[in-house]
Write a structure and sequence with these properties.
This protein is α+β, with helices and mostly antiparallel strands. The protein has 16 helices and 20 strands. The longest helix is centred in the N-terminal third of the chain and has 18 residues, at about 20-40.
Length: about 500
């Protein structure tokens, strides 16, 4: 298998080939052949993939696409990607050790290809990411519309290596990069998922009940169906559910969007073999999923949690927690009241995000994995974390130094049990704390999360407080409902639909 025009003597090819199963190599060969055929022109019938076809298929934006192609083709600069190139790159990028994968991703940041990752390199990469993930409705580039968030991310990154020049802006070491991956994991996940299928937000895994049958598709312009339901065409019946989105072309599933799901597809083979059942499973590619933010439209620009922030924070959460985030409390609209806050959040028992903008203009908060309920001591689990969003973006996970994770004291009359909500630190020296008056609080350096003071000073005066449900009960119920029913039950439902549209006889 492979391209006979390219030497296979490279030991990296042998190593990469061993990392894949025979079936996986067949899928890679099919993918390469498809892209190579699209790369052919009237004057060129060589068996390779061109830069434009490669970047278009994988949807890798701007300078990142150019850099990825350059790395995969081993910097030959011949504008030709061979099958061997693809196997070696995929073998490293997807099957390599953690250090090999991180080293590959780190090299992606050097978009100027000068052997150094500078602030300008990272700025260009972040602009490409934001342009891709959050395209501006007015056509402006991400560098313009999202510049303040990009600047806040850059403020958090260390560039510890210095070239010795007086005007040197410094460069990022591999250690600096690993620190970035630890504290802003969404960026690592995005870069890690660039060789997933081209739809930003979906990655399809397909298999058939017939071991000799397989489907290989890549996303093209087609219809998009949201929610649950069923589609019947001349050659297929597709059923879907669980809040996902399917893209269907000519009656065949070619992509699926949503955190996860299963689709049962009846397909009539071209060879006349009759109807066969194909099971399509999907899960979201790392780094791409952005939760839907649910809040009254009238709140508009007063919302602190921008969708870009939601994506950044979501890097520390599980896929079920990235479906929908529902605004439970906003101090500007519900009143700056502790009792109102507790009343609103008590209606939803899942984890929450607390976000505060103080009068100094700092933006920060915490993720509470447990409900905000009355306790006389710390509680919670190691899923809790603190974060800063402005003037820098940084997440602080539990260090394991102690279990002083979450605090919620109500109507106590002791200075040793201060009324209010908080995360981390110790009593009267919290990592983050908002008093029951909801107009004062504190933030100190704390060992619980390894976090610094999150504001300009230890004493804070909240200007706006928001609380979001990260896993609303409605989403939990939908997820549970989607798991009900067996394959045979779903098959029977599909067969009933075939009867309704007059196609059942074709499948028997």
């Amino acid at each position: 298998m492979g391209n006979s025009q390219t030497s296979s003597a490279d030991p990296r090819l042998s190593s990469a080939t061993r990392a894949f199963s025979h079936h996986e190599l067949e899928l890679l060969q099919h993918l390469f052949n498809s892209l190579a055929s699209q790369s052919r022109t009237s004057t060129n019938d060589a068996h390779f993939v061109s830069p434009s076809i490669f970047k278009g298929h994988f949807g890798i934006p701007g300078c990142l696409g150019d850099r990825m192609f350059d790395l995969i083709t081993q910097k030959r600069h011949d504008q030709k990607l061979t099958f061997e190139d693809l196997v070696i790159a995929k073998g490293t990028y997807e099957k390599g050790t953690k250090d090999e994968i991180q080293e590959f991703v780190f090299q992606l940041l050097d978009v100027n290809d000068d052997g150094r990752v500078t602030r300008s390199d990272v700025q260009a990469v972040l602009a490409a990411i934001f342009d891709d993930a959050f395209p501006s409705k007015d056509g402006e580039s991400g560098l313009s519309s999202d510049k303040y968030i990009i600047d806040d991310i850059l403020n958090a990154i260390q560039f510890s290596e210095n070239g010795g020049e007086s005007d040197d802006e410094g460069s990022m070491s591999f250690g600096d990069f690993k620190n970035l991956c630890l504290h802003i994991p969404s960026i690592r996940k995005y870069l890690r998922g660039l060789l997933a299928p081209s739809d930003p937000g979906s990655i399809c895994l397909l298999y058939s009940t017939s071991p000799s049958f397989s489907l290989i598709f890549h996303l093209t312009d087609s219809q998009v169906f949201e929610g649950g339901g069923m589609l019947a065409t001349h050659d297929s019946v597709v059923s879907w559910g669980g809040g996902g989105v399917l893209v269907v072309m000519s009656g065949l599933v070619v992509a699926a969007r949503g955190s996860h799901g299963v689709v049962w597809l009846d397909w009539y083979g071209e060879s006349g073999d009759g109807w066969m059942r194909v099971v399509v499973q999907w899960s979201v590619g790392e780094g791409f999923q952005v939760p839907r933010l649910l809040y009254p439209e009238s709140y508009g620009s007063n919302i602190l949690l921008k969708v870009e922030y939601a994506w950044l924070l979501g890097g520390l959460l599980t896929q079920p927690e990235l479906e929908e985030w529902k605004l439970l409390y906003h101090s500007s609209f519900h009143g700056q009241s502790f009792n109102t806050f507790l009343g609103n959040v008590s209606n939803d028992e899942g984890p929450t995000l607390l976000i505060i903008k103080d009068k100094e203009g700092y933006l920060y908060g915490g993720y509470a994995s447990q409900p905000w309920e009355k306790h006389s001591d710390f509680y919670g689990d190691m899923k809790c974390f603190l974060f800063q969003l402005h003037p820098k973006v940084y997440m602080y996970r539990p260090t394991g130094a102690n279990t002083n994770l979450q605090w919620c004291a109500v109507n106590y009359c002791s200075e040793s049990i201060p009324n209010g909500i908080g995360l981390g630190g110790r009593v009267n020296h919290f990592g983050l704390f908002v008093s029951a008056s909801f107009d004062t609080g504190q933030t100190f350096e704390c060992t619980t999360f390894g976090s610094p003071c999150l504001s300009k000073s230890n004493r804070i005066c909240p200007e706006v407080i928001e609380c979001w449900s990260v896993f609303p009960k409605e989403v939990q119920q939908q997820s549970n409902t989607a798991l009900k029913g067996t394959v045979l039950q779903r098959f029977e439902e599909d067969r009933n639909m075939l009867n309704l549209v007059g196609l059942a006889n074709s499948s028997q």
